[in-house]
Amino acid sequence: MANIKSQIKRNRQNTKRRLRNRHFRGAARTAVNEARTAFDTAAPNTKEAVMAAISSLDKAAEKGVIHANNASRRKGRLMRRLYALNAPARPISEKPARVEPRVGAEAVEVEEPKGRKSTAKKAAEPKKAATAKKATARKATKLPAKKKSAKK
């Protein structure tokens, strides 16, 4: 038990704040759980449940009960799931707008066009020359070592 006056007051304030924050945190948690249940049961009011959850998360973040990034992350998860639920099925023949290059084991080697030579060796040579110049410049400007003063 605190015996310092300011600490006693701080404990009273913390108790009040905890009880006040509990309402907003609990409301947000309940709304998110209801939205998840709506997803699982494929209820017709899924969108309304998600919007209510987002609203309660915003209120909790606005009050400082949960961190803004925490609320944003939870809202993103809900919206991503809602979009996946309502996304139209894309025909198999339709290609995506942008094709990402494959990386790793799936990588496909591409032949160089005829008439062009690789510039990899040319790019490496100037770097060696530049580092050699820097090394000689450092040696030329190197100052003599300071003499150690003898302490008495």
Instruction: Write the CATH architecture name of the domain at 10-86.
Output: Up-down Bundle
| Portion in beta strands | under 5%
Mean pLDDT across every amino acid position = 79
Task: Report how far the terminal alpha carbons are from each other.
Answer: 58 Å
Structural class: mainly alpha
Low-confidence stretches: none
Task: For the structure shown, list the relevant keywords.
flat; 152 residues; Methane Monooxygenase Hydroxylase, Chain G, domain 1; 62% helix; 4 helices; mainly alpha
Describe the model:
The protein is flat and about 80 Å long. It has a domain at 10-86: Ribosomal protein S20 (Methane Monooxygenase Hydroxylase, Chain G, domain 1). The longest helix is centred in the first third of the chain and has 37 residues, at 5-41. The mean pLDDT is 79. The chain has helices at residues 5-41, 46-63, 68-86, 120-140. 62% of the residues lie in helices and 0% in strands. The chain has 152 residues and is mainly α.
